[in-house]
Design a protein that fits this description.
By secondary structure, this protein is of the alpha/beta class. The chain has helices at 3-12, 18-22, 42-50, 61-65, 77-82, 102-113, 126-131, 139-143, and strands at 38-40, 54-57, 68-69, 73-74, 94-97, 119-122, 136-137. Helix 6 links the parallel strand 5 and strand 6 (119-122). The longest helix has 12 residues, at 102-113.
């Protein structure tokens, strides 16, 4: 089963949509509706990167510290779901990513449900991006140079 199939199962099950699960959270500025999320493959994500899309890493802080996509901003998915405001204009193309795709879809859904108009989730994860030889940053290693 591919990550796409897993995401489809998760979004299609009753209550499976993050937007649906968050609809009653008091920290939200407005109730979110079920929001479809576009999922992109690694090649399409790199094309978006080269075209200037902003990448949002939704992994945990320890994962971020081990390395991330060059130029990405960090917003862990749990925080993003409760406060879906990021330092990116709402009409800027955005690609969310994590380690395997599920948290990226959750983060993308939270952003899309809150007015971000061009949001996609990377179907694979950071390690696939890194293995492809695409630009990455390693904060500790970069700082020690």
């Amino acid at each position: 089963m591919t990550i796409i199939d897993k995401l489809r199962q998760w979004f299609e099950r009753p209550g499976g949509s993050i937007a649906h699960q968050n609809a009653n959270r008091s920290t939200r500025s407005s109730p979110a509706s079920d929001t479809p999320v576009d999922v992109v493959d690694l090649g399409s994500a790199f094309d978006a990167y080269q075209a200037g899309a902003r990448f949002i890493d939704v992994r945990e802080p320890n994962e971020w510290a081990e390395g991330h996509i060059a130029g990405a901003v960090h917003h862990p998915v749990d925080a993003l779901e409760t406060h879906p405001e990021v330092s990116v204009a709402r009409d800027t193309p955005v690609v969310t990513y994590c380690a395997a795709g599920l948290r990226a879809a959750r983060g993308a859904a939270a952003l899309a449900a809150n007015g971000y108009s061009d949001v996609k989730a990377l179907q694979s994860g950071y390690s696939d991006w890194q293995a492809a030889g695409y630009p990455v940053e390693h904060p500790d290693a970069d700082r020690d140079r």
